[in-house]
Specification:
Elements: E1 2-11, E2 20-34, E3 40-43, H1 54-59, E4 67-73, H2 83-100, H3 105-116, H4 119-127, E5 130-132, E6 138-140, E7 146-153, H5 159-164, H6 172-191, H7 194-200, H8 207-210, H9 217-226, E8 231-234, E9 241-246, H10 250-263, E10 268-271, E11 281-282
Parallel strand pairs: 3-4
Antiparallel strand pairs: 1-2, 1-11, 2-4, 2-5, 5-6, 7-9, 7-10, 8-9
Amino acid sequence: MIGIRVPASTSNLGAGFDCLGLALDIWMEARVVEGEGAPIYAGTVAGLDYHTEILAGVVGDAVPARHHLEIHSEIPIALGLGSSAAAAVAGYALRQLLQQQTLDRDKIYEAAVRTEGHPDNAGAATFGGFVLAAPRPARLAFNRSLAVALAVPQTLINTKSARLILPSQLPREATISQVSRAAALVLGLMNAEGDLIGYGMDDQIAVPLRKGLIRGYDQAVAAGIEAGAYGVTISGSGSAILAIAKEEQAPDVAAAMAMALTTEGNPAEPMTPVVSERGVGLLE
């Protein structure tokens, strides 16, 4: 048996659009095991069609004869937590193991970005931790006194549709503001400076247009801030909502945001996953 595991990720983090990602302690596992047959899916991926699913498509003919894939995931699908990037990273990692018995994470990352198109998610899924998707992905230091709080609705959002509503051009003022906020966000998350985190998570490009896709978004943001969050934004393209808070306040923040969404007719569950310092790796 050959197997790998890949973490979920939350991306953008506000003004860090397509550039910043955080790996989360929610996992996808994929194995190549003896026995002929089609891939077997379980967990959140149960019922996927292997003809169109990313992981199986990437591994493809690298699966040896008389073997098959078994894939189990706890990562919510189409909710802004990097399920597609995790699948692409898992697929290329498995393919490498089957062909050369080693993992080259730089090549896995590059291939996953070409296939899936989200370097912020792919960077976090591949390398773990807090990642800046520069030409060479850079690991940053997420301050250990901080934590992630999520409210995860049941309503799915198609990433391609969410991208189509974004503008093709931006005013100069908005561009300058976004750059300033992205820089502030990095410093804030590294140094646990709440004012910089709040400023940096106040995205000026995507969130104003996408928040209308998430019923109760404004109420959830207000509830999260009242419960102690430094900042609240959309995780990836949504519909999960992300907050950054002090570690001890994260459960209350997640619960408050989920309750606000649920009250507005958008049932949601709170989650407080730990930031995973590990990216893609071998299953023991």
